[in-house]
Amino acid sequence: MSSTDAVTVTTRVDVDAATAFEVFTSDIDRWWRRGRRFRFVDGEGTLEFVEGRLVERGGGGRHEVGRVLAWQPGAQLSFEFRGRLFRPGDVTVVDVRFEPEAGGTRVTVVHRGWDSLPADHPAKHGYEGTAFTAMIGLFWGDLLLPLQRRFIAA
User: Fold this and answer.
1) CATH code: domain of residue 14
2) Among 45, 58, 61, 84, which residue carries the largest CB count within 10 Å?
3) How many domains does the chain have?
4) DSSP 42
């Protein structure tokens, strides 16, 4: 894996790993940010894990983000990721680890497989190399902020 193939983003939540996993998976539609930058169908959609897949439905459409590759409650989740600009056959992989630590859980997201997409892929928005991976890192950082805030407000 090259330095431009994967992005790693980590956050900490103030709950145990089993609860963090449950909220990440069961409440994904509540914490996954809305809007064209983060969602997959036009209009309001519902994002959920169903029948071994992550799917968003709504706005007159359905987008299968990808198949679940690993489901270990309280420990690990892995799923394929196909963004709204992905072409048929394009796929990357998101690995999420839930690691207990004092007073909470470290949630680490590794999004890999970017080197398998061509340099001119529309999901890269014209960015290459570390500029592209920095953009994807910021995407995941922005995306995970509501997950972290969900536990602060609780």
Assistant:
1) 3.30.530.20
2) 45
3) 1
4) S
